[in-house]
Amino acid sequence: MVEILNTIKGFDISFHNKSQRIINISIKEDIIEKLIFPFNKFDIIALEYKPFTRFTLAKSLDDITQNKLGLFLQKIIKNRKTGCFILSVANVNKKITNDFLIKLSTAIGHLLGVPNHDAMSGKYYARFHVKHEDNSDSYLRKAYKNMDLHTDGTYVDEKTDWLIMSKLEEKNAEGGETSVLHLDDLENLDELLKDPVGKEDFLWGSPKSKNIDYKVKHPIFTEDENGMPSISYIDQFPEPQSMNQGNFLQKLSDSLEESSNKIITELPVGSMIVANNHFWLHGRKPFKENKSLCRELLRIRGKFN
Ligand SMILES: [Fe+2]
What we know:
This protein is of the alpha+beta class. It has a single domain (2-184, 258-304), classed as Clavaminate synthase-like (Double-stranded beta-helix), CATH 3.60.130.10. 26% of the residues lie in helices and 28% in strands. The chain contains 7 helices and 16 strands. Strands 1, 2, 3, 4, 5, 7, 14 and 16 form an 8-stranded mixed beta sheet that branches. The protein has a 4-stranded antiparallel beta sheet with strand order 6-15-8-13, with helices on one face. A two-stranded antiparallel ribbon has the order 9-10. The longest helix has 16 residues, at 243-258. The two termini are 25 Å apart. 35% of the residues are buried. The mean pLDDT is 95.
């Protein structure tokens, strides 16, 4: 697996200290300096209204790395053994504004493929806060609840091959760590795969805030082109239509939450976790109660091209 640790000038690349499935990529100051000018060419409105500008950002980033970065990131995300990286800015200073991080995340997304329309925000990306007070209808913003392991895009009719979660801001946060699990590390995966219920169609809906006015049907487990299992699952949105389906979901949920192979990691401000959505599950640990808690995240989900 060491062959994946290419060297790209201006980047520090290493394995995550808890798992060789996750690659840490740190962007050094000189690359950030080189990005300031091309990134200033477009403001956020331009990126939102003119989709081609997003590819222009991605190209500027790739050009700075002699076109090595895009291929390298795709290799990590498509490789079954890895499929996940954490990209961070080595020195988070005043230049690393929210706009800069939106642009960097946009560039990374367009080196991987094309983002999906995010119905919750009506844009190609979504920004959202997690705070002490919340009256939303999903676990996304419930600071003091565990957000169970899941994949994204379970209730939409678009393919979701990958996802990016970037941390824009964080104040007074204790707890709230990111948890992730590679499907192949789930202890009783073989047993779950043998159960035919996991391969039958389930009905998937979503609460109001997601702005999706239809339901979709698909199995939890499918096979990819190499015969490897893919998972599409979230605890809150399947609508089981039989005792068998209900029991299967409960068993899967227990297996995921009890797995001792989950990787719990902190994501510093200015960094993003990027994962293959077919064989990585993600979640979040609860925060410690604090009235001034504030975290802002940005997400982009998309497909390979
Ligand atoms: Fe998610």
